[in-house]
Write a structure and sequence with these properties.
Largest sheet: 8 strands, mixed
Distance between the termini: 48 Å
CATH topology of the largest domain: Rossmann fold
CATH superfamily of the largest domain: NAD(P)-binding Rossmann-like Domain
Strand content: 5-15%
Number of helices: 11
Bound molecules: NADP nicotinamide-adenine-dinucleotide phosphate, 2-acetamido-2-deoxy-beta-D-glucopyranose
Number of domains: 2
CATH architecture of the largest domain: 3-Layer(aba) Sandwich
Oligomer: single chain
Helix content: 40-55%
Shape: elongated
Strand order of the largest sheet: 3-2-1-4-5-6-7-8
Radius of gyration: 24 Å
Length: 296
Amino acid sequence: MAKSISVFGLGAMGLVLAEVFLKKGYKTTVWNRSPEKAKDLVANGAHLATTVAEGLEASDLIVVCLLNHEAVNTTIKQALPSLKGRTVVNLTNGTSDHAREMSALVIAQGGRYIHGGIMGVPPMVAAGVAFLIYSGPLEVYQSVEQDIALLGTPRHLDAEVGTASLYDLALLSGMYGLFTGFIHAVSLVRSQPGKDKKDINVSEFVNTLLVPWLSHMNEYTKILADQIDADDYSSKSARIVMQIPAIDNIVQQSKANGISPEPIAAIQKLFILANDRGFGNDDLSQLVNHNDAKEN
Ligand SMILES: NC(=O)c1ccc[n+]([C@@H]2O[C@H](COP(=O)([O-])OP(=O)(O)OC[C@H]3O[C@@H](n4cnc5c(N)ncnc54)[C@H](OP(=O)(O)O)[C@@H]3O)[C@@H](O)[C@H]2O)c1
Ligand SMILES: *[C@@H]1O[C@H](CO)[C@@H](O)[C@H](O)[C@H]1NC(C)=O
Ligand SMILES: *[C@@H]1O[C@H](CO)[C@@H](O)[C@H](O)[C@H]1NC(C)=O
Ligand SMILES: *[C@@H]1O[C@H](CO)[C@@H](O)[C@H](O)[C@H]1NC(C)=O
Ligand SMILES: CC(=O)N[C@H]1CO[C@H](CO)[C@@H](O)[C@@H]1O
């Protein structure tokens, strides 16, 4: 296990990452564009690096948690030679291409690179209940596994370094789909003509109707997944042709009540496309085969 660590980026997430290592007794060095965010950490024994090079050189293990790709241009790239011999664990949000690009850059400097996605918000990381997904060479991952396990349950997905970003984005996409449905469903309920919005108890709707309904649908996605794995979409429980009018009704009701139909129009397009291509009798799992960018 590494005894020292450098954490780059002290935003909401980076601060918690640094606190976890500090509490576990690591000699913790931190760097942030705005150094004042390190005040509490320094009071608790962390060292504040004043330059990027100093931050990199202080530890063999470097954890990066910055806002985005652009932030890295103005940081790590200032001190490339200092990456030599270091292991970079990058927990910054991005695309697979960004991860591959950075991995190549770090390796070219004689460093090692693992990319990760934090599945959780800062309080979950602080409480040790988040899970994290990683990709990159297995031996590099194993060399830091005990250290990064302090941040939450780790899972190594694949040696291909872009994998964690792709899976992270896939999980987030599932989450945003859920939130999209939540917002649209609540908007519909609150749009009832002749009713005052403040007389509509959203908690009551969500707790007694939406959540039980979605819990069943959540389980149903496992059946859909089996159909996709088997490449057999012929189950007749909810055929595409049967669902098209239901979706059209949601669009009509939304428009009539002054709610944007856009969230539902997106999936409606896929249903119509799959039907037009002759798959109307299949279950909705068939839609994965029609989600191609060129048609949408
Ligand atoms: N918060 C979450 O729930 C959560 C969960 C999972 C993953 N993440 C990921 O963790 C990463 C950090 O998120 P966060 O919530 O900590 O974000 P945040 O609170 O907005 O912090 C952003 C960090 O990036 C730095 N930064 C931004 N632009 C910069 C630039 N041009 N040059 C140098 N530094 C720059 C900021 O420095 P300053 O302090 O100087 O502004 C700060 O350290 C993101 O990739 C995020 O997606 C966050
Ligand atoms: C960290 O990952 C982000 C997102 O993939 C990328 O934009 C950034 O360049 C990487 N930074 C480092 C230092 O590896
Ligand atoms: C990062 O810097 C390079 C030049 O070193 C530039 O070509 C690139 O556009 C920059 N990327 C971003 C996202 O700012
Ligand atoms: C809304 O309903 C919940 C029960 O689901 C109840 O606990 C709450 O007090 C109600 N809120 C209002 C403002 O009536
Ligand atoms: C790679 C990574 O850190 N992904 C995160 C992107 O941001 C969302 C929300 O802030 C997180 O849930 C992801 O884990």
